[in-house]
Amino acid sequence: MEKERHVSIEYLSKDILDEDFLKNFENFQRFQFVLGSCRVVAKDRFVTAPTALQKLYTIFVITYVIFGYYLINQYDQRFEVKEFDEILYKGFMTNSVLFYTIDTIHLRFFFNRENAKFYVKLYQLDRFLKTNYVQATNTITYYYFVDCPLDLYLRKVFDAFETYQELYRFQILLFTGKAVFYVIAVLRMSDDFLSLIIIVTMTILDILGILFFCYHSEVFQRQLTRIKRSSIGIMSVYQSGPLRDKAKKIYELIEYSPPCFSVFDIWQVRADTFIGLCRLITTLLVTILQFEFL
């Protein structure tokens, strides 16, 4: 009796996550755990902030990486290179360590509770969608569209998107700045084959990461535009009634509070963001080439 009572009280908590939901992040979290950069700890179907021991492990990993970069720098000093290239290479190494340290510290030591709450919010959003899946897949019919809480689901999506922006925009800022610096370093280190391979690999990974993020941001915005146009189409057919009221709520939600990933109000992440980044990098490369050959 006591066991049944304990189980019933346990499942009243909204913070308990399904195992299937946690499995979606399991491999990714294991990889982050080894690197010492995991934002949260998922254990026994709960999500919590990193423990003190795990944070200590992160400090050890950061110290190990800094020491490794120091040994690489000491090894490279045995080779003769141009003075400017040596300064640029040391700057590249220093910035790489600096970017990594700042990013890892921000991931592991800041916004711990917010990250845990964000995972719970994603789970609640996933559970809300599964609960109303039958209705959501039949929105083309009158009664299903009226009864389907699509407007409530969109509000939850927008709220989760706002939290996601607050937690990840700092990483996007570092990621973009690092990619620009790496591209410039590629041009200057073209004489050193080993350094060139390392820098080109890191640059390609960063650029692909930015492209991936911009692509999915654009897909998200296009889906919202599609829902908005569908709402306008419904309102143009139905001049009154519950169907028009539901479509109007959805339209106003997207029109007056559209979610858009903004990096500290410096720029917004869309498909054209990647094009603008390529334009900036091209301008910097042309400027460097002018100083190099003129």
Question: Topology, please?
Answer:
Blueprint: H1 2-10, H2 19-35, E1 41-43, E2 46-48, H3 52-76, H4 83-109, H5 112-131, H6 133-136, H7 142-147, H8 150-188, H9 193-237, H10 242-256, E3 262-263, E4 267-268, H11 271-293
Antiparallel strand pairs: 1-2, 3-4
Outline:
The protein is mostly helical and 294 residues long.
Please describe what this structure looks like.
The protein is mainly α. It folds into 2 domains: 1-107, no CATH class; 149-294, no CATH class. It contains 11 helices and 4 strands; from the N terminus they run H-H-E-E-H-H-H-H-H-H-H-H-E-E-H. It has helices spanning 2-10, 19-35, 52-76, 83-109, 112-131, 133-136, 142-147, 150-188, 193-237, 242-256, 271-293, and strands at residues 41-43, 46-48, 262-263, 267-268. The strands form 2 sheets. A two-stranded antiparallel sheet has the order 1-2. A two-stranded antiparallel sheet has the order 3-4. Helix 8 (150-188) runs parallel beside helix 10 (242-256) and helix 8 runs parallel beside helix 11 (271-293). The termini are far apart. The model is unreliable at 1-12 and 136-140 (pLDDT under 50).
